[in-house]
Amino acid sequence: MKKTQNYYVKNINKVLDYIDVHIEHSFSLEELAAITSFSKFHFHRIFQSLIGESVFQYIMRIRLEKCASNMILEPDRKLSNIALQYGFSDLSIFSRHFKKHFNRSPSLFRDQSEKNSNNSQTDSNIQRINGKADLYFCSDLKTIKWTNYMEIIKNVEVQHLSEMTVAYVRNFGPYVGKSFSYEKSRNDLFAWSAAKGVMQDPNFKYLILYHDNPNVALNDNLRMSLCVTISDDTETDGAIGKMKINAGMYLVCDCELSAPDFGKVWEWIYGEWFPNNHYIPDDSPYFELYKEQPETEILKVSFCIPVKIKTL
Fold it and tell me: What is the spatial distance between Cα 229 and Cα 244, in angstroms, rounded to a whole number?
């Protein structure tokens, strides 16, 4: 039974990855079913059973959430351009679907988000975490770095990261409060990695990839992938999927911290670092990269967020 279920999960994961990469595309049921070995009728029923919504409900929700996230990150960008980027050729159709999903018009959503952002920044300035980033230029690496006085943050740097091929186990639901599900997925992934000899690679990396903006997506719909790096020719099987993490410019925040500190770091990055620098988050998944751990409760983690230069 488990082998059969894993076969279904693997094929549906292929479709989810395909949708993510081609989100602006006009999909057909035949096209998506062809990615799997299922007929379009069975594909539709299997997708709804595993994901909890029809494939086209899923596509619409992901598009709308990406639009909403982009509206928050780039408040001066035209709504028509944002809508077009995520597959809406008509602004009125986009607005109608947006209002139905978020219970407010796109313009009202943007106004309220900007107001909340300004209030949050005021609070952040009053209750800021120990230290503010100082800018300096590192001529050796030809890159801009930031240092700060927070005890848990060791280095903050915008740098180019290379493309990574990863094997993954995907979880759906809240990013926090599901420790049992997380531990099971991690154990399954590590057991598979050990059997494949993946962990013997000197460049082996373990990371947790977040696909959604938790300020926009509903908690039960958040997607998280637990990943290990693999070579391009490594075959995956069962519930273990395979995908690429794009190369590009990333904010990399190196930390030594304990579990309760993760929220503080994310708060500092989005509430302090981004508002005070010339970058905004790009529309790609962000991740936590876990480095070799000492035998203590202190974790060495790099918080990696794709970025682009803020346009005036």
Answer: 9
Q: CA distances (Å), 108 to each of 88, 91, 99, in order? A: 19, 15, 10
Which residue would you say has higher pLDDT here, 182 or 18?
18
CA nearest to 162, candidates 230, 247, 252 = 247
Residue 157 DSSP code: E
CA distances from 273 to 152, 191, 250, 296 (A): 15, 37, 13, 29
In angstroms, the Cα distances linking 114 to 74, 86, 255 are: 10, 21, 30
> Contact 55/32 with Cβ under 8 angstroms?
yes
Distance CA 209, CA 119 (A): 29
Confidence (pLDDT) at 292:
67
By mean pLDDT, which of 281-285, 292-296, 304-308 is the weakest? 292-296
How many CB atoms neighbour CB 117 within 10 A? 15
Average pLDDT over residues 224-239: 92
- In whole angstroms, give the CA distance from residue 96 to residue 94: 6
In the chain the first and final C-alpha atoms are separated, in Å, by: 56
Which residue is it, tokens 């154990």? Answer: 187
For residues 263 and 245, is the Cβ–Cβ distance under 8 A? no
Q: Which residues pair with 253 in a beta bridge?
A: 156, 303
Q: Which residues contact 261 (CB under 8 A, 6 or more apart)?
A: 152, 255
Token representation of residue 74: 């780039």
What is the Cα Rg of the chain in Å? Answer: 20
Task: Measure the CA–CA gap between 14 and 242, rounded to whole angstroms.
Answer: 8
CB 247 within 8 A of CB 163: yes
Question: How far apart are the C-alpha atoms of 148 and 97, rounded to whole Å?
Answer: 43
